[in-house]
Amino acid sequence: MANFRGSFSSSYPFFLFFLLFAINGLALISADDHEISGSTRLELIHRNSRKLSEKVGLDVRPKSQIENIKRLHHRDVQRRLTVVSRRPKAIETAASVAMPLHSGSDFGTGEYFVEAHVGTPGQKFLLVADTGSELTWVKCNYNNCGRRRDCLRRIPNDKAVFSADRSSTFRPVVCSSRMCKTELSNLFSLARCPTNLSPCAYDYRYMEGSAALGIFAHETVSVVLTNGRKRQLTKVLIGCTKSVQDDQGSFKGANGVLGLGLGKNTFTSRVAEDFGGKFSYCLVDHLSPMNESSYIVLGQNRIKTPLLSRMQQTKLVLGGAYGSLYGVQVTGISVGNLLLNIPAPVWNVNRGGGAIIDSGSSLTFLAEPAYKLVTAEFNKFLSKYERLPEDGGPFEFCFNPKGYRESLVPRLKIHFANGAVFQPPVKSYILDVAPQTMCLGIVAASWPGISVIGNILQQNHLWEFDVEKGTLGFAPSSCT
């Protein structure tokens, strides 16, 4: 599932499926012993980790690194569309929510799972964490039993399915409400309304043909603070999904989706009401051992992360043509000491271009005019190595690394507004994809079209998003 689901309609063409924090490797970030206030930790588990396979009793791992790369590309391609959504309102406070990420990088694809407790009493599920999704949903059984014990006894006790009737805080959204008719229309609420008190139904479609069908409701999600205390987030909008169409196996191993994108009804906007409109994450090397972890922090970051240099700041471009995505204002790309002559419209979202920073996409996509100039410059360096024939993978420039020296590779730099310069480590764009095979890990995107800075390029950096101020901070870090 790495990223890549786009929900479909002409007015809402793109729904990013999956994790804000879909990365291929992570490392533990320790909590600050002098933390002023608590923060909440939810465990995220990589889709292809052994840990997840053990939890669900399914082996969901790719058989090789090259198969993994091909899967990443297939899913990432589907992520490159535009979303229409609204910017969430948030109130900053001192506390924060920390969500541990567990690496499955030995087999990783870019999808991560969060263990969430839904309902009262809490029922535990594994949800795909998706930064582009505005809908949080769980596989669900709802019979409107009320307090009738005879009805409850007939409901199967399936731990993989949320039993809404057994939760005292489950409140369906009624189809006659303004929320159903207006606010949830961009989440594919259905027009049918048999009675005024009938639940508001949805048919949520994804790009590759998958779909989730069910009803909207408000529910309680329980979280645990970093100081060990428990906290309940009430009135979280969730989807009670009764039917899943999943011919592609996109939801294999998961019980649903945790919506982390921008929007009025996302999980992040609900958390922002209590903890503020900030979040951050730090991604270690995508080949890190699967048992290492880091954190997504929602709210003020009170997790101590060592930085290798000062934090730089640039603009976030939110809303408008970017919808629920996190847009950034790129001003140029340099390779070595050469600033490439990339046409300005490539970075202008109002002229067919633009760029986003997306931890849900593993690979980095550059719109064709930028891609051609970047790869042409790198090809001057790569031409000294044995060029390998294409094998159906996503990368155009692959070579035999015999004699390869990382210190000789030209440095890639992405220039942002306000003078900020992002210089990823070489290992983030010259990728070791198979035995005796290395590739320039950048993929062409159609033009006009959006460019995507994926999570492999983001690795070994702390990224801090301030939605309220519209800023993005970043600094190199080991993330440990």
Automatic annotation (TrEMBL):
<dbReference type="InterPro" id="IPR033121">
    <property type="entry name" value="PEPTIDASE_A1"/>
</dbReference>
<dbReference type="Pfam" id="PF14541">
    <property type="entry name" value="TAXi_C"/>
</dbReference>
<dbReference type="InterPro" id="IPR032799">
    <property type="entry name" value="TAXi_C"/>
</dbReference>
<keyword id="KW-0325">Glycoprotein</keyword>
<dbReference type="GO" id="GO:0006508">
    <property type="term" value="P:proteolysis"/>
</dbReference>
<feature type="active site">
    <location>
        <position position="358"/>
    </location>
</feature>
<feature type="signal peptide">
    <location>
        <begin position="1"/>
        <end position="31"/>
    </location>
</feature>
<keyword id="KW-0378">Hydrolase</keyword>
<dbReference type="InterPro" id="IPR021109">
    <property type="entry name" value="Peptidase_aspartic_dom_sf"/>
</dbReference>
<dbReference type="InterPro" id="IPR032861">
    <property type="entry name" value="TAXi_N"/>
</dbReference>
<dbReference type="GO" id="GO:0004190">
    <property type="term" value="F:aspartic-type endopeptidase activity"/>
</dbReference>
<dbReference type="InterPro" id="IPR034161">
    <property type="entry name" value="Pepsin-like_plant"/>
</dbReference>
<dbReference type="InterPro" id="IPR051708">
    <property type="entry name" value="Plant_Aspart_Prot_A1"/>
</dbReference>
<keyword id="KW-0645">Protease</keyword>
<keyword id="KW-0732">Signal</keyword>
<comment type="similarity">
    <text>Belongs to the peptidase A1 family.</text>
</comment>
<feature type="domain" description="Peptidase A1">
    <location>
        <begin position="112"/>
        <end position="475"/>
    </location>
</feature>
<dbReference type="InterPro" id="IPR001461">
    <property type="entry name" value="Aspartic_peptidase_A1"/>
</dbReference>
<protein>
    <submittedName>
        <fullName>Aspartic peptidase</fullName>
    </submittedName>
</protein>
<keyword id="KW-0064">Aspartyl protease</keyword>
<dbReference type="Pfam" id="PF14543">
    <property type="entry name" value="TAXi_N"/>
</dbReference>
<dbReference type="InterPro" id="IPR001969">
    <property type="entry name" value="Aspartic_peptidase_AS"/>
</dbReference>
<feature type="active site">
    <location>
        <position position="130"/>
    </location>
</feature>
